[in-house]
Every structure is written in C-alpha cells, then in structure tokens.
Amino acid sequence: MRKKRTSVVHRICTLVGSLFCFILIPLLLINCTLIIKSITNKNEVPDIGGIFPMVILTDSMNPQLASGDLVICRKVNAKNIKTGDVICFYDPEGNGTATVTHRVTEIITDETGALAWKTKGDANNTEDEKPVRSENLAGIYCWRLPGLGNTAMFMQSTKGILLCVVCPLLLMAAYDKSCDLRQKKEKEKSTEALLAELDVLRAEREKSQD
C-alpha cells in the first residue's frame, strides 16, 4: 500500500514538473532573447520574429487597455498604419527610450514633409501635444493579456528571477536527485532480496543433497 501511494505521488510530481518545464522553459528563452537583444541593440524595441511585448503603465487607453496589462505588438511598415489603429511609439516628448501606446487620430506630414501621425489616449481629453514621426514607430497593437504586465516586470527583476527561475530550477534538480537516490535504494533492496532468495534456495538444495 505504501509503495502504491509513493508511486502515485511520484507520478503527480513528475506531471507537475513536466507542465512546469513546458511553461517555464519557453518563457525563460523568450525573456533571455529579449534581454540580449535589448543589450545588443539599444536603439530598437527587442522583438522575436517582429513580435514584442510591452507593459502598459498608465490608464490613458481605458477602457481598452489598463495599467498593468501586457500588450503584444508587432512591427509593421509605417505606410500601413491607418486612422484608428493603436500604435506603440517612442514618446516624442520623452528621453528617447520611453514608449507610449495610443490611438492614431489623423495621418499627417510633419514640417519636413515626412509621414507622421496625431495620436491620443482614449481616456484623455486632448490629443498628444507632439505628432509622432514614422521613424519613432515601434509597432502596432495586436492583443492584450490583462494584468500580466506587472507579473512580467516582476519576473525581470532580481527577486523575480530568483523566485521564478532559480528556485524552481533548484527544486527540480533536488527532486531529480531524490528520485535517483530512491531508485538506487530500491534497486539495492531488490538485489539484496534476490541474493537472500538465492541463499535460501542454495541452502535448501544442500540440505536435500544431504
């Protein structure tokens, strides 16, 4: 009965570990890829196959987007942007790295004759002060994952990496080690039992020969 219970627990732990790996490993690979790209090319939003995640930090796009949402965007040719599209762009009034996700209200040309857009947050009363030039376009909004932005930011922090990556990997390594030790002990017990049975058979054979 105890052996059967141990087997069930082992199967459950193996299933949980497999599911955890199925979820964790892709997230870890994606996160590492984005971090490496952000370091090697600081002038562009890091992406994978033209797709990149962004975290919404304000409620300027309520009700469609809320603070703490994780949005998925994709890179697109600036000429394909239409009025009404929600775009992610480098803030013309920012430090060159801050991004904003707002809706295009009008397609215009700037003072140099280059393509640009007027933008506005759905929850804002006025349009953004400065037009967005096509060179500041990061991508177009595709869909959102409600509330996962805070989780994504936490996972990129030191505490998040330790809690969500390092600790689970250590636990998995410890679990694998314990499974190996248990299997080794069970094998040793089986070997001892087999040897004991052989000794009994040998003793019975010698007794019968006498």
Overview of the molecule:
The chain is of the alpha+beta class and 210 residues long. The chain is built from three helices and seven strands. The protein has helices at 2-40, 148-155, 158-209, and strands at residues 51-55, 70-74, 86-90, 99-109, 115-120, 132-133, 137-145. It has a seven-stranded antiparallel beta sheet with strand order 1-2-7-3-4-5-6. Strand 3 and strand 4 (99-109) form a beta hairpin. Helix 1 (2-40) runs antiparallel to helix 3. The longest helix is centred in the last third of the chain and has 52 residues, at 158-209. The protein is rod-shaped and about 115 Å long. The mean pLDDT is 79.
Condensed summary:
By secondary structure, this protein is an alpha+beta fold. The protein contains three helices and seven strands. The two termini are 41 Å apart.
The sequence of SSEs as H and E is HEEEEEEEHH
**What is the alpha-carbon Rg in Å?**
30 Å
* Biggest β-sheet strands, sense, barrel: 7 strands, antiparallel
Note the overall shape: rod-shaped
**Secondary-structure class:** alpha+beta
Low-confidence stretches: none
Write the layout of secondary structure elements.
Elements: H1 2-40, E1 51-55, E2 70-74, E3 86-90, E4 99-109, E5 115-120, E6 132-133, E7 137-145, H2 148-155, H3 158-209
Antiparallel strand pairs: 1-2, 2-7, 3-4, 3-7, 4-5, 5-6
Keywords:
single chain; rod-shaped; alpha+beta; 47% helix; 210 residues; seven-stranded antiparallel β-sheet
